[in-house]
Amino acid sequence: MVHRIGESPAAQRVRQWLAPLLLRIQQWIAPLARRLWERVAPQVEAAQDKVQGRLNSAFGNDLTAGKQSPVPARVRSMQLGAAAAALGIVAVVVGSAGGVSGGQDVEEAAQTAALPAGAPQNPGQAPVPADPHGGDGDVPPEAPPAPEPEAPWGPPAEGIDVSNHNGSIDWRKVAADGKQFTFVLATDGTSFTNPRYSEQYHGAKEAGLIAGAYHFARPDKSAEAQADRLLATADYQPDGRSLPPVLDLEVDPKGGGCYGLSVQEMHQWTDTFNRKIKDATGKDPIIYANPSFWNQCMGGTADYGDHPLWLASYGVSNPKVPAGFDNWDFWQYTDSGKVAGISKPTDLNQFQGGIERLKQLASN
């Protein structure tokens, strides 16, 4: 196991990161170096023998003949010895590159890189304490990704909402009439499903509209069952063309009022429904309501102020926002609109933020 005393943590991490790469390079070069050594080894050995022979011959002849060489014997010995050493170094470098033992230090470094953080690198070294803030030594932890910037505001986007009562719709004509989004009734209570839902919902998306499914709530019946029914019908897809599902909260159509529930019970029912939808889609449901219902049945609560608000308010130029919300996102401003491609009167809506923000709501 390799350990370098005095090496900084940053240098250790760089070395540990490079170790596997160096090992792979060595493994790739080794066969080439081995073949190279097999070719040059005879020549290197012959050159070594030749130099050594000349060295012996030169010193032997001079000493036997009693002659004085023009170059001092010590200098000649150093020159010839250096030549022989150089050839020996060539042999060692080429041979070790092609061998297995030359990779020992790299292999040990690679093993060190595989150790978990904080493990000692040798028996005498104390473990490195973990950074209590989640960092890695002297390197600060990575910052979380920045949230996507909000799209710019634009002129209100125009849209509609439809149900089975609207019958067959020519969505190409709806789109050509300037409508950019639609909500489609998917389910009502625990027992009704719009028989035209798939035709209307997918037809709108195929024509280029952004679409969302809505559920007409019956809070005197199971919230779980109604959420499951909506999810089974809506076919919600995170495709950038689907708005979050809608919880349509209105007074009891059979007699008005709040379905015989207290404000607290209405909150509990709404929380249960919304939680199931968010668990399945990752989205907070859009809340559809009008000011009188919200004040009467929900107590003007701000608990749902972070949900997009689809506000119903007819015959006004500036709708009143219910207590608990900062502003409206969608505004249903009439139930008697005329739209190309739809034979009967239909509901008309606006999205306040403009088309780019509408696309962002369908994407996030």
Automatic annotation (TrEMBL):
PROSITE patterns in alphabetical order: GLYCOSYL_HYDROL_F25_2
Keyword list (alphabetical) reads: Glycosidase, Hydrolase
Gene Ontology biological process terms from the UniProt entry: carbohydrate catabolic process; cell wall macromolecule catabolic process; peptidoglycan catabolic process
Keyword Ion transport carried by entry: no
- Low complexity compositional bias: what residue ranges? 116-128
Region span, Disordered: 116-165
Biased region (Pro residues) positions are: 141-155
Query: Which GO molecular-function terms appear in the entry?
Result: lysozyme activity
**What Pfam families has UniProt attached to this entry?**
Glyco_hydro_25
Which family is this protein grouped under? Belongs to the glycosyl hydrolase 25 family.
- What is this protein called in UniProt? Glycoside hydrolase, family 25
